[in-house]
């Protein structure tokens, strides 16, 4: 495993912890829509970091698409009684699965993922520009 992959994975662990801390801090300090919707956005950001942790060399668009698809799958699964039943038995399951469907969360997942896709894309472009040789000057 390359050093870059190790650093990427470490950064993703730290980022996920930071997003979780932010979500719990907002939840502790506020109540209402800000707490709910920021939680959806930050949970999507955590999913994005998990995707990058698993596949460190994945491109930004597939990473963002995967994270969004997973979040939407979990949200739409909440239309069935299964996530609510599982969530009643476990705090961790409730954090991962939620308990009830909210259509607004579907948009907030995108709000959590899009800035990370943009940052990922910019960092990859910057890294490529630093590793590509300068074009040769022709006379």
Which range does the strand content fall in?
under 5%
**How would a crystallographer describe the biggest sheet?**
none
Main structural class: mainly alpha
The helix content is over 70%
Distance between the termini: 43 Å
Radius of gyration: 18 Å
Low-confidence blocks of residues:
none
Number of strands: 0
Counted by DSSP, the helix tally is 6
Return the average pLDDT rounded to an integer.
91
Instruction: Encode the helix/strand succession as letters.
Output: HHHHHH
Shape: elongated
Write the layout of secondary structure elements.
Elements: H1 3-29, H2 33-54, H3 60-77, H4 82-89, H5 91-97, H6 103-131
Helix pairs in contact: 1-2, 2-3, 2-6, 3-6, 4-5
Describe this structure in words.
- With 139 residues, the chain is an all-alpha fold.
- The chain has helices spanning 3-29, 33-54, 60-77, 82-89, 91-97, 103-131.
- The longest helix is centred in the last third of the chain and has 29 residues, at 103-131.
- It starts with a helix and ends in an 8-residue tail after the last helix.
- The model has no long low-confidence stretch (mean pLDDT 91).
Key features?
139 residues, mainly alpha
Describe what is shown at a glance.
The chain is mainly α and 139 residues long.
